[in-house]
Amino acid sequence: MSTVFKVFDVESQSNLDYARSCAIMLSTIVQQKPRVQCITNTAAMDFSSDIVLAVGARPSLTMGIDEIREFVASCDALSINIGTLDAARKAAIIPAIETANDYQRPWVLDPVSAHASEKRCEYARELLELKPTVIRGNIAEIKALVGRDTPDAAWILAQETGAVVAQTGEADIITDGKKALMIANGDEMQTRVSAMGCAATAFVATFLAVNRRAFDATVQALLALSVAGEVAAAKSEGPGSLHMHILDTLYSLDKTLLEQRAHLLKCEEVAA
To answer: How far apart are the C-alpha atoms of 203 and 209, rounded to whole Å?
Structure first.
């Protein structure tokens, strides 16, 4: 029996509700200035910290093994990206996650290129055992973690791990294994900017820092980033200017713009 998905618009009120809750969380971030500890790949460090700063949060990027536990103990959320698996990052990742769990801090796993290397996939699966709050990856990475090529990989991974899974790409799908939403915002030009997906992981962690309802926080984060990307792309001549405009748009993103632009879809899994 194969799996297919029915996708349909949410009620207009639901679009407004998510837009408004996203705006509230953006204001909360500005007010609370949460600190987000990011262990990320070399290419993503600048952009990840830039988008966290753009909405008023405080990124920290240390990965020193002698201080990582202290940094995580005093942060509000943790973002783990395995894109650059050098010795320094590998030494810091598990102590960082263990500390986040000890202090009940939410954490996000980005299994970068889990589909490209068996050792990398094995390592990502080891991290799944430490119970991430959210897993954010592209469809190939999600399928690799599940271990099979199936269109419902995100649902399966959420059910197996208990995490919220955000499968990002042309459209973003967020599921907790029971319900799922698709965000139909964004622009293709975003795929031409280095580390956009990796930065999205840090952005999800930023929203988790002020909203412990993981499904809602993930939808809010990716909605804000997608709307900002859509608006920024309309002002940009190419990827270089998009990088600048997306930061400026996130800085000024408000309820009015979110209400005008938010486009959410419901996804339902059905047997064919």
So the answer is: 10
